[in-house]
Amino acid sequence: MDSSGRICIFGAGSVGCYLGGQPISAGASVRLIGRETQARQLQSHGLTLSNLRGGLKKVRAEQIDFVVDNPQAAADAALILVTVKSAATEHAGRSLAAALNAGSLVISFQNGLDNAASLQRLIPQCTVLAGMVPFNVLSRGEGAFHQGSEGRLMVQRDAALAPHLAQFAAAGLTLEPHDDMPAVQRGKLLLNLNNAINALCGVPLKTELSQRSYRRCLAAAQREGLRLFKAMQQPVAALTPVPAHWLPYLLELPDFCFKLAANRMLAIDPLARSSMWEDLEAGRISEADWLNGELVRLAARIGSQAPVNQRLLELIRAAERGGRRDWQGDELLAHLQRASSES
To answer: How far apart are alpha carbons 68 and 283 in whole angstroms?
Structure first.
């Protein structure tokens, strides 16, 4: 492949393979860097990319440029997308620091609030932009990745992005520049608080969000986040058709009313699961410390508490050690309410 204009995906897991596979299918030069297990799958099966609207793209194995765990392979890329899990950010930054040239453009497409800043500190010779992936991607095995919900990629506005916007649009992945990415990341964090709930209940996202008891768990977690962001005078972007501070009220509506009012929130593939559920299935450490744990740390910073998110964090840590992942909605809600009342 010609390296001119090459995109490099550093951390080619579910999200990375999906984001990289789309431009490959449109003829772009893309290099994927990831684990040996992923390389073997793609060598055997190629890439299959699908979405909840019935879209389907296939990329043959011989079209895929996959390098196993070698950061130096990103050195000649025009754009590097970092899609590793939050726990791997430090390692990714140190690895890329030794590989990337001065002026390289990097986008952190990771969950949490501080990964882009962490990468910028570790690779100061590069321009690091914060990005946000709004949709869920599920690995179905054998090189198949499914986009199970909707939304547009968002990225911190920067003139250096200009050459890449058309490239992504041609691949069906609109990059939407945004002036206040911290507010966008806070809005995404509020939505990502559902990852832990979904991982703990063991049912698909659509099934979970169709039940008021589970939604009330999410509303309680979100209220803590909204309270903390307000106390710290930090704005939260609306990533749904309603303002962020309305979300808990919407979630608490009876099932029939919620279904009428929130059709777009339920535009989720029936098989979609949270990335945290997928992590637990694979025996990996989850991102709970960078989601629910982020709010626990923010609360401590201002001398407050976030008991609902603290308890969700504890339950996920227990699940990582083999603990329960079959919580019923009413049972989990009562457990979280008890934690809140005891604080």
So the answer is: 21
Instruction: State residue 266's pLDDT score.
Output: 67
- Burial class, 159, CB count within 10 angstroms (exposed 0-12 / middle 13-18 / buried 19+): exposed
Q: Which residue numbers in the chain have pLDDT < 50?
A: 1-3
Among residues 55, 57, 3, 53, the alpha carbon closest in space to that of 25 is found at 57
Q: Are 105 and 130 in contact (CB under 8 A)?
A: no
**Strand pairing category for 79-82 and 7-10:** parallel
Helix (H, G, I), strand (E, B) or coil at 47: strand
Half-sphere exposure of 160 (CA within 13 A, CB side): 15
How many CB atoms sit inside 10 A of residue 174's CB?
12
Nearest to residue 8, comparing CAs of 18, 26, 23, 20?
A: 20
Helix (H) / strand (E) element for 186: namely: helix 181-192
Mean pLDDT of the chain: 94
Q: Which domains does the chain show, CATH number per domain?
A: 7-179 (3.40.50.720), 184-342 (1.10.1040.10)
Residue 112 main-chain phi, psi, to 5 deg: 90, 180
pLDDT score recorded for residue 269: 83
The 10s digit of each residue's pLDDT in 185-195 is 999 999 999 99
Q: Is 81 helix (H, G, I), strand (E, B) or coil?
A: strand
How far is it, in rounded angstroms, from Cα 319 to Cα 305?
Answer: 23
Per DSSP, 171 falls in state T
3-state secondary structure of 132: strand
176: left (phi over 0), alpha (psi -120 to 50) or beta: beta
Locate the DSSP E strands across the chain: 7-10, 30-34, 47-51, 56-59, 65-68, 79-82, 105-108, 127-132, 137-141, 144-147, 153-156, 175-178
